[in-house]
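User: Can you help me understand a structure? I only have the sequence.
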Amino acid sequence: ALRSLVRFLHADGRIPASLVGAIPSIAGWRKASLPQALTPGAVRRMLCSCDRRTRIGLRDFAVLTLLIRLGLRAGEVAGLELDALDWRQGEVVVHGKGKTLSRLPLPQDVGQALSAYLVRRPRVASRALFLRSRAPLRPLTPSAITHVVALASKRAGLPRAGPHKLRHTLATEMLRRGATLTQIARVLRHRSLATTAIYAKADRVALRELAQPWP
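Assistant: Let's start by predicting it. Here is the structure, written out as tokens:
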């Protein structure tokens, strides 16, 4: 924007020479920002905001529990079908990026949230796990999953959050509890460990040992 301004000033005759070359470039470092995560208290408030006396509340609670406990993406939750739940093995089959197929453990609290919703789930021909609340009862889309998280954060009195923030929250909490980056990469199903390396910056306690004293 500043280059455009001085280019215009020179073309308009307001400055004698073009100063474009005097304006340095701003470095744009990849993965320079810190991963944004929610506190455990904020997570509890989001979950408690779901009215589990209603079918919609049970559905939204199950969606949030999947996102928070397994770190799934919005598209992965939307793509889940009833056949993806292996109750005997305690696993859920997830279709991830690049047509990958992963079998993830089904923690007890996730299983309880899902089973409570399934009892109230409408009996329709669709095999999709999560359905809309109003007719026609079609599967939830990735954007609808994002909307569920946004509404929960609003009800909890939090800034607007999305499914990816819950994914960051899981990784940050795992790191806080002593998990390695390799373990986090396995849970989040990252193809490259370099993708997971961003969470190293979130461990501020460990980073203090690396910081050099200010002269």
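Now, to help you interpret it: The two ends are 36 Å apart (CA to CA). The first helix runs from residue 2 to 11. Let me know which part you'd like to focus on.
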